[in-house]
Amino acid sequence: MMREIIAVIPASGIGSRMQADKPKQYLTLKGKTVLEHTVSLFIDHPQIHKVIVAVAKDDPFYANIALLKSDKVQIVFGGKTRANSVFNALCQIENETAWALVHDAARPCLKRSDLDKILQIEDQQGGILATPVVDTIKRAHSTQILHTEDRTTLWQAFTPQFFPADRLKKALQSAFEKGQNVTDEASAMELSGYSPQLISGRSDNLKITRPEDLALAEFYLTHSPSL
C-alpha cells in the first residue's frame, strides 16, 4: 500500500538577514513569490498527498496567494521557532503511519530528481538531503580561529528531511520538554536516539538567506535543468 506522505513547509520566519520589506518567502522570483515556487514542487508530485504550510499568525501576505487556496494545501499557524512551526503542522496529521517531508520555504531550487531520491527512504529512522562539505571549515572563538576541522566526516544538511510523522512529532515534543536545541528535524531525531540517513543531493538546492542569494536562485531556476 502506498504511504501517505505529507509535505510540511515552515514559512513563519521573518528572514531578517535579507534586509527586505517583507519576509523572504514572499519576495518575487521569476514572477512568483519564493513560497509559490517551493509549494509548487510538492503540489505537483504524485506521491505527496497534502502540503501543510505553517505561517505566522499576523502574516498579511499568504491570503493573497492563489496557490495556497488549493485543495491540496492546508494552512496552519506557526510558533516562535522553526521547530514549533513544524510541530504545529505535524499535529494536524491524523494518520499515525503517515510520513512527513519537511522542506524550507526558502529553498525553491529543489530538483525533482533529489525529491524522488529522498522519497525512496523506507528506514523508520528517516533521512535528509545533504552534501559533503567541500570548503575548509574553521572552528573559532568570536572571530579568532581556534583550529581547522577535518571536513572528511562533515556534511551540510539540506531539506527536504523525511521521517515517520509520529516519530518526528514525539522527538520534537521530547526536545521541547528537555529544553534541547533543535536546529532541524534530524537533530530532534538524533536527540531521541535515531541515526537518520544522509542522502547526497545537489549543491544548487540553496536556502535563500542573504540578498545575494535571490539572484543566485533566479540563475539556478533559469539555467539549471528542472529534473
From TrEMBL:
Record-linked SUPFAM superfamilies: Nucleotide-diphospho-sugar transferases
Reaction(s) this enzyme catalyzes, per UniProt: 2-C-methyl-D-erythritol 4-phosphate + CTP + H(+) = 4-CDP-2-C-methyl-D-erythritol + diphosphate
Keyword Iron: no
InterPro entries: IspD (IPR001228), IspD/TarI (IPR034683), IspD/TarI_cytidylyltransf_bact (IPR050088), Nucleotide-diphossugar_trans (IPR029044)
GO MF annotation, one: 2-C-methyl-D-erythritol 4-phosphate cytidylyltransferase activity
Enzyme class: transferase
Keywords: Isoprene biosynthesis, Nucleotidyltransferase, Transferase
Functional pathway: Isoprenoid biosynthesis; isopentenyl diphosphate biosynthesis via DXP pathway; isopentenyl diphosphate from 1-deoxy-D-xylulose 5-phosphate: step 2/6
Positions of the record's site feature: Transition state stabilizer: 17, 24
Residues the record marks as site: Positions MEP for the nucleophilic attack: 151, 207
BP terms from Gene Ontology: isopentenyl diphosphate biosynthetic process, methylerythritol 4-phosphate pathway
Enzyme Commission number(s): 2.7.7.60
Job of this protein: Catalyzes the formation of 4-diphosphocytidyl-2-C-methyl-D-erythritol from CTP and 2-C-methyl-D-erythritol 4-phosphate (MEP).
PANTHER family (UniProt xref): 2-C-METHYL-D-ERYTHRITOL 4-PHOSPHATE CYTIDYLYLTRANSFERASE, CHLOROPLASTIC
Family to which the UniProt record says this protein belongs: Belongs to the IspD/TarI cytidylyltransferase family. IspD subfamily.
NCBIfam families attached to this UniProt entry: ispD
Protein name as it appears in the record: 2-C-methyl-D-erythritol 4-phosphate cytidylyltransferase
Origin species: Mannheimia pernigra
Recorded name of the encoding gene: ispD
